[in-house]
Design brief:
Number of strands of chain A: 5
CATH class of chain A: Alpha Beta
CATH superfamily of chain B: 6-pyruvoyl tetrahydropterin synthase/QueD
Strand content of chain A: 25-35%
Order of helices and strands of chain B: EHEHEHHEE
Oligomer: heterodimer
Order of helices and strands of chain A: EHEHEHHEE
Distance between the termini of chain A: 17 Å
Largest sheet of chain A: 5 strands, mixed
Helix content of chain B: 25-40%
CATH topology of chain A: Tetrahydropterin Synthase, Chain A
CATH architecture of chain A: 2-Layer Sandwich
Number of domains of chain B: 1
Distance between the termini of chain B: 15 Å
Largest interface: A-B, 16 and 21 residues
CATH class of chain B: Alpha Beta
Number of helices of chain B: 4
Shape of chain B: elongated
Radius of gyration of chain B: 16 Å
């Protein structure tokens, strides 16, 4: 049985890689390459998997919320992903890379009995990225 | 092929184990342990798996599926206090997980046709929290 809990955060970013020229970056990333950056209302779905405990729950809601709050939301919400998130400093802040980063933030301090199963991030209502966690 | 039918019901519940103290229940269930109860607009998505019947072109008759969901879930649970009015929640704590399991049990017993089987029950307690109970 799985439980999925949804969280929201807002952040700014700019897609740009030092591996490409100014013209190549502009062509590849289009508007996302705007030098002043831009922002999104991200929606993060965290899915955990496991048996029910004595309380009839897969995971304690408050414990899951606290972990996501401490490990992820406090570090990305109302931040500039390119300059303020340590794990993304040497990466392009695509939502693909953000998903892997957030999965790592959760896994590194995962103390819950339920298994982290999936991280899904919607950058907008039209784009979503989903990552199955390998344990 | 997968077929999913959605239904909604509104119900109140309390999550508390009578064997535990008020403090223990509050620590585990938070505000959900309030003995006077509170309510949710539950949304259930029932997914059936099967191959389309060569004659009817249907995996499962949607009209029949709607009737089964109404008889097993909506009619007995809608606008009810689950702990007091809907067995087994007089003895089973109506967490989202346990409600999803109970819906699974009720529907699985009714979906007994050769070419289709119950694949998943997804129960949303709120728009931001859902549980998947699958085969």
């Amino acid at each position: 049985m799985q439980l999925t809990s949804r969280y929201r955060f807002v952040a700014s970013h700019r897609l740009n890689t030092a591996a490409l020229s100014v013209e190549q970056n502009a062509k590849l990333y289009g508007k996302c390459n705007n030098p002043y950056g831009h922002g999104h209302d991200y929606v993060l779905d965290v899915t955990v998997d496991g048996p029910l405990d004595a309380s009839g729950q897969i995971v304690n809601r408050a414990a899951l919320d606290a972990l996501v709050e401490t490990q992820v939301l406090q570090r990305v919400d109302h931040r500039d992903l390119n300059t303020e998130v340590e794990e993304l400093q040497d990466q392009v802040t695509t939502t693909e890379n953000l998903a892997v980063t957030i999965e790592g933030m959760l896994k590194s301090q995962w103390t819950l009995p339920a298994r982290l199963m999936r991280v899904r991030i919607a950058e907008t209502a039209r784009n979503a990225f989903e990552l199955e966690t390998e344990n | 092929m997968l077929l999913t039918r959605k239904a909604e019901f509104s119900a109140s519940h309390v999550c508390a184990n009578p064997a535990w103290s008020a403090e223990e229940n509050a620590a585990i269930y938070g505000a959900n342990a309030n003995s006077h109860g509170h309510g949710h607009n539950y949304v259930v998505e029932v997914t059936v798996e099967g191959e389309p019947d060569p004659v009817t072109g249907m995996v499962f008759d949607l009209r029949v599926l709607k009737e089964i969901i109404n008889e097993e879930v909506v009619d007995p649970m809608d606008h009810r206090f689950l702990n007091r009015e809907v067995p087994p929640f007089d003895t089973v704590i109506p967490t989202t997980e346990n409600i999803a399991q109970e819906i699974w049990r009720r529907l699985a017993a009714r979906l007994t046709v050769p070419n289709a089987r119950l694949k998943n029950v997804r129960l949303y307690e709120t728009a931001d929290l859902y549980v998947d109970c699958g085969s």
